[in-house]
Design goal:
mainly alpha, single chain
C-alpha cells in the first residue's frame, strides 16, 4: 500500500494549506472523464451504424467520391 498526499495543513485537522499536490486527480473526476469518452465513442458508433443502414436501404452512398460521376 502506498499513500499519495493531497494536501498538507498547518494544523492537525485543518488550517492554512502549506502544500498541495497539483498533479492529483480525484477518482471521481477520472471516472467521469472515462465515462465521457465512452459515451462519445458509443454515439459515434451509433451514427456510423445508422448511416450504413441508410446507405444499404437506399442502395447508394451520398459521400462517395464517385457520386457525381454517374449523374
Amino acid at each position: 500500500m502506498t499513500l499519495q498526499p493531497i494536501k498538507i495543513f498547518e494544523g492537525s485537522l485543518g488550517g492554512k494549506a502549506l502544500w498541495q499536490n497539483k498533479a492529483f486527480i480525484a477518482p471521481s473526476k477520472a471516472r467521469s472523464k472515462k465515462m465521457e469518452e465512452y459515451l462519445k465513442k458509443r454515439d459515434t458508433k451509433a451514427i456510423r451504424k445508422n448511416k450504413l443502414k441508410k446507405m444499404l436501404k437506399e442502395g447508394r452512398d451520398d459521400d462517395s467520391y464517385l457520386s457525381d460521376a454517374f449523374e
